[in-house]
Amino acid sequence: AQRVTQPEKLLSVFKGAPVELKCNYSYSGSPELFWYVQYSRQRLQLLLRHISRESIKGFTADLNKGETSFHLKKPFAQEEDSAMYYCALSGSQDDKIIFGKGTRLHILP
Amino acid sequence: EAGVAQSPRYKIIEKRQSVAFWCNPISGHATLYWYQQILGQGPKLLIQFQNNGVVDDSQLPKDRFSAERLKGVDSTLKIQPAKLEDSAVYLCASSLAGSLYYEQYFGPGTRLTVT
């Protein structure tokens, strides 16, 4: 069964410290992985996706098929990074996106 | 460009009542999605339309939920009758096409409280 696991409900990090939001997935084929973000009082929006191999707002994510992980990383946290982050998966067979439960990132001043 | 519009933004109803939500996608977007997001969880896809046809409604509780997109533009999602467990935020999203290569754009959501 397809599943996305985000083990941390809340992650608090000091400004300037590195950030790592964990995401593990379960999928029998070749998945596409995404990170979505929701800032306070804003809409859910795409942050980055594996297929684009891009860095957005200083965030990167590497797909590790051996560990079935897609952790989101940023070397130096900024206060504006405080938000809810959702890891998501889509299978190669269909376009349905499955979301994890989300991790709230709180950047401390 | 204008984003995905949803109304109402908030709705409070009693159990066994009916409720309808409306979504207007971004102009030109062929694919429209309805998601249910229960507190503390990620969004869960209820139904996906490609123009006015249903692509996936496997997770839609069809005994009480219905959705339509008659002219391939606006869409409505209805719950009849509502249950307490239907309390959630209902998100509408749209994309140019149904491929995962096209970004989904989300609306602000409708927060439903069933008492």
Keywords:
heterodimer, A: 109 residues, mainly beta, Immunoglobulin-like, B: 115 residues, 7-stranded mixed sheet, 4-stranded antiparallel sheet
Q: Would you mind describing this structure in some detail?
A:
The complex is a heterodimer of chains A (109) and B (115). Chain A is an all-beta fold and 109 residues long. Chain A has one domain: Immunoglobulins (Immunoglobulin-like, Sandwich), CATH 2.60.40.10. Chain A has no helices and eleven strands. In chain A, the strands form three sheets. In chain A, strands 2, 5, 6, 9, 10 and 11 form a six-stranded mixed beta sheet that branches. A three-stranded antiparallel beta sheet of chain A has the order 3-8-7, with no helix packed on it. A two-stranded antiparallel ribbon of chain A has the order 1-4. In chain A, β9 and β10 form a beta hairpin. The mean pLDDT of chain A is 92. Chain B is mainly beta. Chain B has a single domain, classed as Immunoglobulins (Immunoglobulin-like), CATH 2.60.40.10. Helices cover 0% and strands 48% of the residues of chain B. The radius of gyration of chain B is 13 Å and the shape is globular. Chain B starts with a strand and ends with a strand. The model of chain B has no long low-confidence stretch (mean pLDDT 94). At the A-B interface, β9 and β10 of A face β5 and β10 of B.
